[in-house]
Amino acid sequence: MIKCLSNRWEQGHRTSTYPKETILLPERYRGKPVINNNCDQKIIDQCARNCPQEAIDPDHCTIDLGRCVFCGTCERLSQGQFIQFTNDFEFAFTQKKDCITNGSIPDLNQHVNVPAQKLFGKSLQLRQVSAGGCNACEADTNVLNTPFFDLSRFGIQFVASPRHADGLLITGPVTRNMRTALLQTYEAIPSPKIVIAVGSCALSGGPFRGSPDICDDLNDLMKVDLLVPGCPPHPLTILYALLGVIGGGSSQPIVIH
User: Which CATH number fits domain 114-248: 3.40.440.10, 3.40.50.12280, 3.40.50.10490, 1.10.3470.10?
Assistant: First the structure.
């Protein structure tokens, strides 16, 4: 016991102060993009041709963050003239169409989400399902339970049974073998419930988009209320999105079904 107390004294308090205080991530982290709509069209076309996810629309000068894996190819090719990825991790969406952006991204915390707050208060229980992911999104979701992030201090927890959950958090592309299990989990969660898609695979199929063995659009199976882009999203991006459900709200209020 003395050894434990001594170690606790030496370590001090390590829990993050976010969201009360801003956290600055390293510059090499690729987060919210800044898009130059006045960039030379030849550069934009080159970026679109080389995008591995076909996420760039050169005609409308937009990027689909639901498809984007944040590989940085477009930033390197354009030398930052067309797209620059900032170290801002605070971005998530309530509608899939908002993932397609010309640089303008709705602020999830612009307005208080009164319907969700009344439903969940300060308690949100989630059942997480990996529908065929590589474990990157799962790992960055799981790390929220460590002492640094301490997800439970916000009243947000992951539960083992869908019958104890308020919502479903999905990672990975929905493979043919996981489709039935995912739908059964969804049906087992009592209504009203919320569905959160985390990572480009869950949002669009990611690198597996177009494969006959996956469902490209999760919305074909169920209504998705919150979309968190990234490959994988930073744990703070996931935390930012989850806090938007119970505290920060959305510029376009999340409709719980």
Answer: 3.40.50.12280
